[in-house]
Amino acid sequence: MRPFEPAQDFLSLSLQGLQPQQATWQQHGIHAHWLGHGLLRLSPSEPEATLPHLLLSAGVHGNETAPIEVLAGIVNDLLAGSLPLRAHVLIVLGNLPAMRQGKRFIDYDMNRLFNGQHSSQPAAAEAVRAAELEQLALAFFSPSTGTKRHYDLHTAIRGSVFERFAIYPYLHERPHNREQLMWLAQADIGTVLLHSKPAATFSYFTSQHCQADAFTLELGKARPFGQNDLSRFAGIDLALRQLVSGQQPATPAYDASQLQLFRASYDLIKHSGDFVLHLADDVENFTALPDGMLIAEDGAIRHLAKGGQERILFPNPRVSIGLRAGIIIAPSSLD
């Protein structure tokens, strides 16, 4: 086997638990370093000091395959020499065991195990991987003197009123990056949730601990490998290709009319086995909640919609007790 030219080797080797004949190699002006299954670092052979550091991750949920195929295609073209590299790039395919089985996760939802939460589930295979990815992200971003960005690519369990949307992690005292919001709009992602508290997600970890501009990107509906219409991912595919190749067009000035911003009001927490979500099983993300509607109840706890502008995001009453069964959100704007 050649030290792996095409991206399908990176993906297929990772899924098969195999590895290339050598861990580092150079081709087409790229220095490639295989860091482990589903982990590949790419840098220009002669990098400039201020090149951006870009972490691209997918497959944190194993059944969300379209973003994995998008990243595989980008790696393929980089290593084939048909796409130039003008950035330091770390490619991460998160939950390989779950990918192999076509499942969201094996033991525990990996995207609730970052920011140190992996220590709460020591028996879960995903906890070990989350801890590994945290350390890789810290090492990758620590030498950066240029921009630091992380896009964690996902697809959703259910449909959405707005097919593509981004989640902007809670920034504490940092301001929202308006240039990044306009970049999202150019990538055909015009709906953004501004999170209002810390989370255990990969993007929150890199935002808070690596000071990266980080986003969770929800790009459509989850489907098995080979069943994705990748034309529906053309916007993010082009935007990422422009970013890694240094060919990104100038981002326009911030224009609030190009974006729909929401802010999380509160989480629906499943406190007991009595939890009931009063929404249809096929309700879509961003479905509007009429004023006064009983959204959910859990024993004596009742959640009522207020004002008529609230919406539901990520409803899932089948989560384990103690976890979030949905997010109630409302329209928002930047200060």
Plain-language structure description:
The chain has 7 helices and 16 strands. It folds into 2 domains: 7-257, Zn peptidases (Aminopeptidase), CATH 3.40.630.10; 266-331, OB fold (Dihydrolipoamide Acetyltransferase, E2P) (Beta Barrel). The longest helix is centred in the middle third of the chain and has 17 residues, at 125-141. The chain has a 13-stranded mixed sheet, with helices on both faces. Helix 4 packs parallel to helix 6. The radius of gyration is 20 Å and the shape is globular. The chain is an alpha/beta fold. The termini are far apart. Strand 4, helix 2 and strand 5 (88-93) form a beta-alpha-beta unit.
Give a brief rundown of this model.
The chain has 335 residues and is of the alpha/beta class. The chain contains 7 helices and 16 strands.
Structural class: alpha/beta
**Poorly predicted segments:** 4-8
Tally of contiguous helical segments: 7
- In CATH's first tier, which class of the largest domain applies? Alpha Beta
What topology, given as strand order, has the largest sheet?
1-2-3-5-4-6-9-7-8-10-16-15-12
Main sheet attributes: strand count, strand direction, barrel closure: 13 strands, mixed
Radius of gyration: 20 Å
How would the global form be characterised?
Answer: globular
Per the CATH scheme, the topology name of the largest domain is: Aminopeptidase
CATH superfamily of the largest domain: Zn peptidases
In CATH, the architecture of the largest domain is: 3-Layer(aba) Sandwich
Proportion of residues in β-strands: 25-35%
Question: What is the domain total for the residues?
Answer: 2
The secondary-structure element order is: HEEEEHEHHEEHEHEHEEEEEEE
Distance between the amino and carboxyl termini: 55 Å
